[in-house]
Specification:
- The chain is an all-alpha fold.
- It has two domains: about 10-130; about 170-500, Neurolysin, domain 3 (Orthogonal Bundle), CATH 1.10.1370.30.
- About 65% of the residues lie in helices and about 5% in strands.
- It contains 21 helices and three strands.
- It has helices at about 10-35, 40-60, 65-75, 80-100, 100-125, 130-150, 155-165, 170-195, 205-220, 255-275, 290-305, 310-320, 325, 330-340, 355-370, 380-390, 415-435, 440-445, 450-460, 470-480, 485-500, and strands spanning about 230, 240, 245-250.
- Strands 1-3-2 form a three-stranded mixed sheet, with helices on both faces.
- Helix 1 (about 10-35) runs antiparallel to helix 2 (about 40-60), helix 15 packs antiparallel against helix 16 (about 380-390) and helix 15 (about 355-370) runs antiparallel to helix 17.
- It is globular and about 70 Å long.
Length: about 500
């Protein structure tokens, strides 16, 4: 007896699951490349990644996926239900993927792998000239991709939209313009009013203890280590999905707060991944809406939570036990001020939350100039240093401290940097809405209970997947459009009282 024909939606989900398996396998290769891969194995990994990317592209743009989409689109599904949302979003992704030739996808992926290793080498040796040809090729491929997608006149908009659907350079510029002047004024006030930092407070912290404490904190936050892990890499990141969440941080005996806050930051990403609907992992309903929302999750946990007094009321006694010798003469108040010290720092990931967004504005200006042809890759270090002095207030000592500090351009992640500052804005909006909904939230933190916050985020952000674009999701969660005002309010409330 012949088996019953599958319904169109089941057929579509089956095809998407095959695509998902290839995508997640490719992601594991990339994770391994940054965590475990021996340096001299880079060429083979580039070829492996290139082949798998081509197979993934073939699977997603196959006639089987197209037929399943056609069948779904012939059905009058109610607008807004799961099936219609998945069909609409998959069609958008399918059409974009179809515009990219297989050869282009393969070439781009192989180049990104080689470019990553070139960047790591250049960063280690402070040698931008070594990396420059790779970055030139990466930028060329990025512009070519924009053209293939029909963004010839505004190629940078395409890359912003990849990371944050619905946004473009004009919208980002508007938000950054409203933030820049008051933020610069606030940073100047804080810098003038603070005493010099005391780096000697944080020297000689055993890495083994740092790692144990980071694991303790991140598990307490709600990260499920039965479906994830924390490793080490040159640049902290979070990869994978809710079924297999890979996070990394880095450790320095003389900079223990960097490893801790990096771990907390990546755990914010990891909690979002683990909070997405697992039974929809292969569909857009099981994927993050975009990187601004993703960054809002990591920045909220890192800043509003982990830099707050309530967090340290719970964790300080444990931290002091781990590092009794190093902190024996440090008071709780001095420690809290050190955790929230504002300073001009050339390194984005080491900067405090008050100055952090200035680093993003610097990169936004550079990316715009690269894409509109006003800036060449060869002139990038000089322009970086000039804008760094103008926007942040100092000039890097070298290119490792400047233009080579971030991994993003090595992998062609143009348009990603704005997501960090947008994420900070969204995090502040979410924070004020959460404490309105849960007045006892910080009392919960002081008792080591982070579940109420995680539950709120699960309900209002995580469970929606890509159902709504960035702006609509924020408005639904907070009742307001994305704005820099909550972030400015938060920074004033957090930083002005201790120092003015």
């Amino acid at each position: 007896m012949p088996s019953a024909a599958k319904d169109p939606y089941s057929s579509l989900r089956e095809e998407l699951y095959r695509v998902y398996l290839l995508k997640t396998t490719l992601g594991l290769l990339d994770w391994d490349q940054q965590v475990n891969l021996p340096r001299n194995s880079a060429d083979l990994r580039s070829e492996q990644s290139s082949l798998l990317a081509a197979l993934h592209h073939d699977a997603f743009t196959s006639r089987r996926v197209e037929k399943a989409l056609d069948a779904m689109e012939s059905i009058n599904s109610p607008s807004g239900n799961d099936q219609s949302v998945v069909t609409r979003l998959v069609r958008r992704d399918f059409d974009r993927a179809k515009r990219l030739p297989r050869k282009f996808v393969s070439e781009k992926t192989e180049h990104q792998s080689r470019s990553y290793h070139a960047w790591a080498m250049a960063r280690e040796n402070d040698d931008f000239a070594y990396f420059a040809p790779y970055l030139e090729k990466t930028l060329e491929l990025a512009k070519e991709e924009s053209a293939l997608q029909g963004f010839d006149r505004n190629p940078y908009d395409y890359h912003i939209d990849i990371h944050d659907p619905g946004l473009n350079a004009e919208k980002v510029e508007s938000l950054f313009s409203a933030l820049k002047a008051p933020l610069t004024e606030l940073v100047g006030l804080l810098i003038d009013s603070q005493a010099e930092s005391k780096p000697e407070l944080f020297r000689g912290f055993p890495v083994s203890h740092q790692e144990r404490f980071a694991l303790l904190v991140t598990e307490k936050m709600g990260f499920d280590y039965s479906r994830g892990r924390l490793d080490r890499s040159v640049h902290p990141f979070c990869a994978g999905d809710g079924s297999d969440t890979r996070m990394t941080t880095r450790f320095d005996p003389d900079n223990p707060l960097d490893s801790l806050f990096s771990a907390v930051h990546e755990t914010g990403h990891g909690l979002y991944s683990q909070g997405l609907p697992r039974d929809e992992a292969a569909t857009p309903l099981g994927e993050a809406v975009g990187m601004a929302v993703h960054e809002s999750q990591s920045r909220l946990w890192e800043n509003q939570v982990a830099r707050g007094r309530a967090f340290w009321r719970h964790f300080a006694p444990v931290y002091y036990k781990y590092f009794h010798e190093q902190l024996r003469s440090v008071s709780d108040d001095d420690f809290y001020l050190a955790v929230n010290h504002v300073s001009i720092n050339p390194i984005r990931v080491d900067s405090d939350e008050a100055t952090y967004n200035l680093h993003i504005m610097l990169r936004f200006e550079l990316e715009k100039a690269l894409f509109d042809g006003q800036l060449s890759v060869r002139d990038l270090p000089g322009e970086w240093n000039r804008l760094c002095l103008s926007i942040i207030g100092l000039e890097p000592k070298n290119d490792t401290e400047g233009v080579l500090q971030d991994i993003h351009w090595s992998g062609g992640a143009f348009g990603y940097f704005p997501s960090y500052a947008l994420g900070n804005m969204i995090a502040a909006q979410l924070w004020y809405r959460v404490i309105e909904d849960i007045p006892a939230l910080e009392s919960n933190f002081a008792e080591g209970d982070f579940a109420p916050l995680l539950d709120w985020l699960r309900k209002n952000i995580h469970r929606h997947g890509r159902r709504y674009d960035t702006e609509e999701l924020v408005k639904r969660a907070t009742g307001k459009a994305i704005s820099p005002e909550p972030l400015l309010r938060y920074l004033r409330e957090r930083y002005l009282p201790p120092y003015t």
